[in-house]
Amino acid sequence: MKSITLTGTTLSHEQVVAVAYGASVILDSAQLPKVAATADFLAEQVTQQQPLYGISTGFGSNADKLLGAHPIRDSRRSGETLLQELQRNLIITHAVCVGEPFAPEVVRAMMVIRINTLMRGHSGIRVETLQALTAMLNAGVIPVVPKLGSVGASGDLAPLSHLAIVLLGGGEAFFDGERLSGADALTKAGLKAIVLSHKEGLALNNGTAQMLATGVLAVAKLEELCDTADLAAAMTLEAFAGRMRAFDDHVHALRPHPGQVHTAKHLQQFLTGSKLTDIAYHLVPRFKSWLPECWPDRSLDALNFDISWDWVPFNQRHGREKFYQRFKPFRGGKKHQPQDSYSLRCIPQVHGAVRDAVAQARRVLEIELNAVTDNPLIFPELEGARNIEDQIVSAGHFHGMPLALVMSYVKAAIPVLASISERRLNKLVDPATNDGLPAFLIGNEDGTESGFMIVQYTAAAIVNDLATRSHPASVYSIPTSANAEDHVSMGANEARHVLDMAHDLGKVIALEIYTAAQALEFRKDMINAARQLAATHDNAVLASKINGAPDPDEAEYADFMVEVEALRAELAAAGEFTPGRPVAAALAALRRHIAFMPGDRSMDGEVQRMVDLVEHGELLMAARAVQ
Which among 508, 509, 200 has a CA at the least distance from the CA of 378? Predict the structure, then answer.
């Protein structure tokens, strides 16, 4: 991968993701003099013996304790000054997170974010310390950072301390896939531990890097999942022979929410070339259980279904004459109605609203990526300042509430997208709502097969789980540090929840695609079987597939056969009914791994494979390749 140059002001989402998954970083040489100048300025101020927070005073509620010239009791390590002890103790006493460690990509994202903000030159860190942290990242030394322990102000103190402690030769780290002591990891990587100087402990652990890293990775994941959800919806629309007019450009111009407009256009793109959407109602047959005598055409014998329509008698057409002039009087799988259910018709409005939530999160996170988020902030350039408090300012940039609130927004959006996906899945398997497809998408002639019934259960369970996890952490502050830090953001929990929930959202979308692929092939095969039957047989054979036909001796029979001939001619003249090119490409990619299911078989491995296909983006890439 190409190395990423860090300037302190130009770090992007895409660059964070690249570094998270292995790219190295370079420190911008033009910016390092400013970093050095700030460190030198701070060192000079220390000689003035001014009370500087976190530099010559304690931290948090200990801010009123000024460091003396000598220790009250000699507990220091040999050769370590009180100021150095202050910074070391800050790190080693704050590294108290618990739980499973973050994945390596999250920790690498934390490291690049922290390095970038320190490059701004307002934190007081020395160039050599910044270079040591960069070397650790580039060498692949990944600190072990347990997931639980940050309240999101003063920044992500505890998790960032786990990151920084490895620089001191403490803690634990992963190196070459092995979990080692921090000292051993540094040694194996050819690196050395460092001793912290003025404010460097505070510079390393006082910021929003954990919540920001997890937020960035979550947004990257969710952006892909929004596209994948659109693909899933497009495949489901094909399976329903759905209506496209609800996605027209001029329709959404009247309510131009950006995500809504984007989704409508995206659906049009995925459905480019579709011959299944917007089919006339009367052309779509409905599923009928297979029997040995189903198909007079031997080429259709391999199919595991029959098809049928209902004929609408003349005495049921009163007041509907104009309708039956336009549409032939046969009822198959599609109902005679001009609109689909909400889970299909309102895809742009629902998916689009989720897109807008994710886009708002990206906007906030982009600001944070190049912000300075530790405390105090150092402004050596303010040379005309009245006193040192104007140049070393205690503020609150470590407070994670901007991130926490936007993550709460995204957190609420995730179960919304999962829910509409599950509703489409349920609609596909339910014979009362699936427009003439088989119950649970399986033939089940003998009553022994469950098909995709329980796939919907799994999706429902995940949606419920996501909904119960969507309560915002940001609304529940618990004061810390003896009430010196009396309002915190809980943004670290919020962003961590969102990242975890994003992966579970992907599972629901995978289950919809898994189910929609089965339904789409049934729909495609059923209507193409009708087309082939019409093209190769006479009216009598097609009439045998129609329920409610009058007896041959009834007066209506001749008119009925005229209408059958019209249906037969229209079907025979039609081209092959196929999905749009992008949907077809995604379906082909899926079928390389999972075959159509003509009868019950073990599904556990297939479900996991579907989850992996969505996780790795294989189906989405296949669809994009032909857009």
Answer: 200
The torsion defined by the Cα of 15, 21, 23 and 24, in degrees rounded to 10, comes to 100
Where do you find CATH 1.10.275.10 in the chain? 4-207
What's the CATH fold of domain 4-207? Fumarase C; Chain B, domain 1 (1.10.275)
* 148: Cα separation from own chain's centroid: 22
Pick the CATH number of 215-370+413-627 from 3.30.565.10, 2.40.50.140, 1.10.260.40, 1.20.200.10: 1.20.200.10
The two beta strands, 172-175 and 142-143, are antiparallel
Q: What is the pLDDT of residues 352-368, one digit of tens each?
A: 999 999 999 999 999 99
Residues of the chain with CATH 1.20.200.10: 215-370+413-627
Rounded Cα distance between 97 and 210, Å, is 12
Distance CA 277, CA 360 (A): 33
Q: Which residues are catalytic?
A: 53
What 8-state DSSP symbol labels residue 279?
-
pLDDT tens column, 408-419: 999 999 999 999
| Whole-prediction pTM | 0.94
C-alpha 581/C-alpha 438 separation (Å) is 25
**Residue 558 DSSP label:** H
Query: Bridge partners of 181?
Result: 172
**Residue 509 contacts residue 515 (beta carbons within 8 Å):** no
